[in-house]
Amino acid sequence: MDTSVSRRAVLGRAAAIPVAGAALWALSACDDTPKVEACAGPNNLTVSENTLRKASNYVEQAADPAKNCLGCGFFTPGEGGARCGKCEIFLGPVNAQGHCDSWAARQA
């Protein structure tokens, strides 16, 4: 059994790698989902704060706009209509458009 590979086959396969990489990069650029900036990045929070947010399934953008942090009783809006406010549960900054499993409707 001959296991030798021709130089042409090696060069052909080597040329395909950058083409495949460019195709993957182009496909990743097709994501037109708007990105929501985090009010507090994971590196700016303690381990326990990050753990609590993960356990509560906190996200920066609520799937249901009617159930975002701005409408939650635990949320205190930021000054001047800032997009970030404070949460009594997380004891730190959260996005007004965020959501977690502890969401409770704000009482009128």
Layout of helices and strands, plus pairs?
Layout (H helix, E strand, L loop, with lengths): L6 H22 L18 H9 L19 E2 L7 E4 L4 E4 L13
Antiparallel strand pairs: 1-2, 2-3
Briefly note the CATH topology name of the domain at 42-95.
Answer: High-Potential Iron-Sulfur Protein, Chain A
Question: How would you name the CATH homologous superfamily of the domain at 42-95?
Answer: High potential iron-sulphur protein
Radius of gyration: 23 Å
Helix content: 25-40%
Q: Could you say what the CATH architecture of the domain at 42-95 is?
A: Irregular
- Please provide the count of β strands: 3
Put simply, the count of helices is 2
Strand content: 5-15%
Distance between the termini: 81 Å
N-to-C SSE series?
Answer: HHEEE
Instruction: Give the CA-based shape.
Output: elongated
Main sheet, how many strands, which sense, barrel? 3 strands, antiparallel
The secondary structure category is alpha+beta
